[in-house]
Amino acid sequence: MGILPILIGWPLLIAAIVPLIKQERIRGYVVYAGAGGVMVLAAALLGMWLTNGAQAMAFYQETEWVNYLMIAGELFLTGLIVYLSIKYRKYPVILLSVGQTALGIWTEFRFPMQPACHMQIDSLSMLMCMIAAFIGGLICIYAVGYMKAYHQHHKEFQDRSGFFFSMLFLFLAAMFGLVLSENLIWMYFFWEVTSVISFLLIGYTRTEEAVNNSFRALWMNLVGGFGFAIAIAVAAATLGTVQLEAVVQTGAVIPVALLALAGLTKSAQLPFSSWLLGAMVAPTPSSALLHSATMVKAGVFLLIRLSPALAGTMTGQMVSLIGGFTFIAASMMAIAQNDGKKVLAFSTVSNLGLIVACAGIGAEETIWAAVLLMIFHSVSKSMLFQAVGSVENSLGSRDIENMHGLILRLPKLTYIMGIGIAGMYLAPFGMLISKWVALKAFVDAGNFLLVIFLAFGSATTMFYWTKWLTKLVSMHRTKEEARDVTHRDQYFSMFIHAGCVLLLCLLFPWLATTVVNPIILELFGASHEVLSMSILTTMAIMLVSVLFVPATMFLVTRWAHKEYVPIYMGGANEGDNTYFVNSYGEPEHLYLTNWYLRFEFGMRRLMRPSVILSSGILIVMLCLIIGGAV
Amino acid sequence: MMRVVSVILYLLLAPFAGALLDGFDRIITARMQGRKGPPFFQPFYDLSKLFSKQMIAVNGVQLLLILSYLVFLAVAGSMLFAGADILMCLFLLSTADMFLVMAASSDSSPFATMGASREMLQMMAYEPLTLLLAVGFYLATGSFQVVDIIHMPLSSVLMMPGFLLGFMFITAIKLRKSPFDLSTSHHAHQEMVKGLTTEMAGPILAIMNIAEYYEITLMLGIVALFFLNQNWWSWPLAIVACLFMYFLEILWDNVSARVKWRTLLDSCWVVTLLTGGLNFLILMLIK
Known about the structure:
The structure holds 2 protein chains of 2 kinds. Chain A is mostly helical. Chain A has helices at residues 3-17, 24-51, 64-87, 92-110, 123-153, 161-180, 184-202, 208-239, 244-250, 253-266, 274-278, 284-293, 295-310, 314-335, 340-361, 364-395, 406-409, 411-425, 430-444, 448-473, 488-506, 508-524, 533-559, 598-601, 603-629, and strands at residues 57-59, 119-121, 563-564, 579-581, 587-589. Strand 3 (563-564) of chain A pairs parallel with strand 1 (56-57) of chain B. Chain A: It is a multi-pass membrane protein. Chain A: InterPro entries: CPA3_Na-H_Antiporter_A, ND/Mrp_TM, Proton_antipo_N. Chain A: The chain crosses the membrane at residues 6-22, 29-50, 65-86, 93-111, 123-149, 161-179, 185-205, 217-240, 246-264, 276-304, 316-336, 343-362, 368-392, 413-433, 445-470, 491-511, 531-556, 611-629.
């Protein structure tokens, strides 16, 4: 499998070339080539792995010089963080960064390990590679057109597109490294790389807000990274191994708990959610990348890997409790948001909460649901971010209120957004079916609280998505013209995403049997049907009905002869459904807003209590776990 | 075979059953208010008149969305009467409702949009109980399949009386009965005009009414699910229970005034926790 280093090296190479190219056109082509190359390489890897029998394969026992290279890399990252922290006067971050790097290097020299494989390909890591390569690659392609329009709109920011693309590709390389690593020290290295790159991406615009948010993201992820480093040290000292699989098999309490903590921070669970919510100050492609294909998925990836060791333990309880609580709290707060990207951010946090809760239970059924949720979430969320970004470039705003009647103004983008939203919560799209499996699994696991969280959280989720959807389909004509400035490469990416969402739902039975079941088999050594084939087929039929019912109704209603009349507006309609005669006899513009329930569900009201509560749960349970194990 | 017959019967008879119940409702309501009330078959006369009217619409998509609402309700009901998965049936019910909300807000009319927002809030209020209800059936009978639930030796209501209470509470929302008729009401001339249905007229309104009849039948079907077991006498018992429950809803409708949305949401969620949540906890503990 000589292709592995090429898969990681190719995006690295592109990342190195891109900032050197000053000409926008050529840079665009290089990015296309880079993204295409990533996809081809990932597909080739998949093909080779499949022809080799799709077994778990381990690589690279002797890696001395690569290890030294990584130490050098870690020192470089630490140096970078120290430099930037001093520059922006955020000194506490230095302690976190230097502390964990020192601990990591000390562990490496103090406890020399038996040679063991450093990388491994199995079904789960293969799936993660596919998500990173294809969704991440498409996001890079999208970014070419987006950044052009972005800098036409935002003249106030310095154009650092070259750096931006470089970071995107670096992120992909780090993500490949992370999901393929079996050795914890290697994984930790890539883990830190993703933390630092997301920090750099969030700070892209260099405004005060961006800098503050980027440092918040950095320190929170460094807290998780510190947990990771301690976990490695403890595992090396007590177990004599730093192989992830070995740690999971022994189920050593302290390393697993600390690794779970790292997973929680990276997947932006409460109380660490604010870093992901702050991440939206960056240009949209980076949000799309952080939310869908890479960063947060790395967190849940680690938790899913750990899940056999979490099942039935106190750590597992902690993880599932935090996840379930995050699911409901974030979905409630999403109701009060009118900023499109913020709604998406809360929805990511909320959905990840559900995945984390599933991982914490650690039963076959829940992991089955978790993996499916992860797949569907990646595709839908990436598409939604891209659609919101394109709408923002066209309208100059990403406020959902300004999307009133978008279907008449930007129909193509509206359809894409609509498919994405439907994919996030409607029956019988994938997310909902996975939720259904999760519900059943929570009941079987006897977890009362999680079922309650899920029942109420689904209701609030429904509310904020429906609200958005109704805004889009409203047949409201405004005077302001909207010009669609979306580039062709952006549409290319979004259309593929939209096709994927629909196709993945249609191919649900296939997805469940050929992609998800092998993952369960590898993690648990056994796998039986979570959903029977007949149910899966029913779902596929239902999906077809969801697509075809409105379509046929569309044809039916076309034949029906209709007389069009103006709407009732209280005052006399001026005839255009937008103005009515008010009590002074003057025309008054009709303005309709959504319902945000700010006093009930606003961030101001809910955020602080949720953070306090979740921190309490986390601290107390971590103390109990670690105290109980020592 | 039985399933196919049952689904076909549902699809054919549910609108009639709903309309008959509506006629019954109108007479009872009128008597409670000291009036004589319309003839028993008035809903049918209304429907035929609505269909005979000219097709007027405020936009091109309203009819499409309302028809989708009707079809999805019919599909959801068919799943129940085919003995399929109850959870999937309830999920589809919310999908159907979503089409209604979209139909109402597609007009961009102030009163219809307000009704649509309120309808969304109502969905948020009743949804937790419906999900818990499915879970309750699963715990009580070991299956999500309706066909298994109705073939238990004992009626599931014995295991889940709390759920029945909670379900009666939220059925008032689904039947658009006071105190929870926030989104639209059976009576016009109000602060919200006619809410959701403000912009619907003629055949479109008729389709909306038929959809509501399907929904009534579906809701009462779920009530019957509480009582049915493998004995033949459970069927008449279930029918009596449904009628009694419907009567209770009418009574409640007549003795209460519409509440504010905050009261609706709070009371529904609290009742859900107290009835469904508690019953669920007990079921989980004794399992």
